[in-house]
């Protein structure tokens, strides 16, 4: 899939990071990276891309990786947001 054009405005939504390791319960988490899911959304007379950022953290005690769950999409593996789908229908 091609990325959305760079000229479209983007809104960055950072999902809450885990506060403890889901494996051992430790609190010594260190940021490992992040996954970005882009959704195309329409505001009347305006298009924008909403980026849902899910930061990845690794536990310094057990080395397990923790991450917030992926955001809900109206269509599985889809890129259209609810406002865009409502406009199309």
CA-atom Rg in angstroms: 16 Å
Mind describing the biggest β-sheet? Answer: 4 strands, mixed
Oligomer: single chain
Runs in which pLDDT lies below 50 for 5 or more consecutive residues are none
Whole-number total of structural domains: 1
Q: Roughly how many Å apart are the termini? A: 23 Å
Number of helices: 1
Mean of residue pLDDT values: 85
Query: How many strands?
Result: 4
What fraction strand?
A: 35-45%
Estimate the helix proportion, in percent.
Answer: under 10%
* Pattern of helices and strands: EEEEH
Shape: elongated
- The helix-and-strand class reads mainly beta
Can you walk me through this structure?
The protein is mainly beta and 89 residues long. It has one domain. The chain has one helix and four strands. Strands 1, 2, 3 and 4 form a four-stranded mixed beta sheet that branches. It is elongated.
List the helices and strands and how they pair.
Blueprint (H helix, E strand, L loop, with lengths): L9 E5 L14 E15 L2 E14 L5 E3 L14 H7 L1
Parallel strand pairs: 1-3
Antiparallel strand pairs: 2-3, 3-4
Offer a few descriptive terms.
89 residues; mainly beta; 4-stranded mixed beta sheet; 4 strands; elongated
Q: Could you write a compact summary of the structure shown?
A:
8% of the residues lie in helices and 42% in strands. The chain is mainly β. It is elongated, with a radius of gyration of 16 Å.
């Amino acid at each position: 899939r091609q990325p959305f054009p760079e000229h479209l405005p983007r809104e960055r939504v950072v999902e809450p990071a885990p506060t403890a390791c889901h494996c051992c319960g430790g609190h010594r988490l260190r940021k490992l990276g992040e996954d970005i899911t882009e959704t195309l959304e329409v505001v009347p007379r305006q298009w924008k891309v909403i980026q849902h950022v899910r930061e990845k953290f690794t536990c310094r005690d057990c080395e397990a990786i923790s991450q917030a769950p992926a955001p809900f999409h109206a269509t599985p593996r889809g890129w259209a947001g609810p406002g865009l789908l409502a406009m199309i229908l």
